[in-house]
Design goal:
The protein is α+β, with helices and mostly antiparallel strands. Helix content is 21%, strand content 19%. The strands form two sheets. Strands 1-3-2 form a three-stranded antiparallel β-sheet. A two-stranded antiparallel sheet has the order 4-5. 21% of the residues are buried.
């Protein structure tokens, strides 16, 4: 069975512009990050063993999916990657591309896309 999940939580320091100053920010506390990893990324029976499709393809790429409307954050590149495609192993192995569409405006979030092979 294949499955996919979308979440709004930061997993790693690469996923937020200023990690050191955001350690107490909702969604990025050490406790929330540990819970995210344990619940979604660890193998069963403790977790769901899902794969972050973007990070699997691009382990070192900085890409943000959320920019606050405050302080002109998008124009300044001050963002967070808080939207993910998490896929089961069977589906993650078929992912050809996982991408962001940063040029699409109209929201504080950037649309995500994933291309899956048959």
């Amino acid at each position: 069975m294949s499955s996919v999940a979308i979440t709004s939580l930061y997993d790693a320091e690469i996923d937020i512009k200023n990690p050191k100053t955001n350690l107490k920010s909702a969604g990025f506390t050490p406790e929330e990050r540990a819970s995210f990893g344990a619940r979604y990324l660890k193998p069963a029976p403790e977790g769901c063993e899902l794969t972050d499709t973007f990070r699997k393809q691009f382990p070192e790429v900085v890409g943000y999916t959320y920019f606050s409307y405050r302080f002109n954050a998008r124009a300044k590149g001050i963002g967070w990657r808080l939207d993910y495609f998490l896929a089961s192993k069977s589906l993650a192995d078929k992912v050809y591309d996982s991408f962001m569409l940063p040029d699409v405006v109209g929201s504080d979030h950037i649309p995500l896309g994933v291309t899956v092979l048959k």
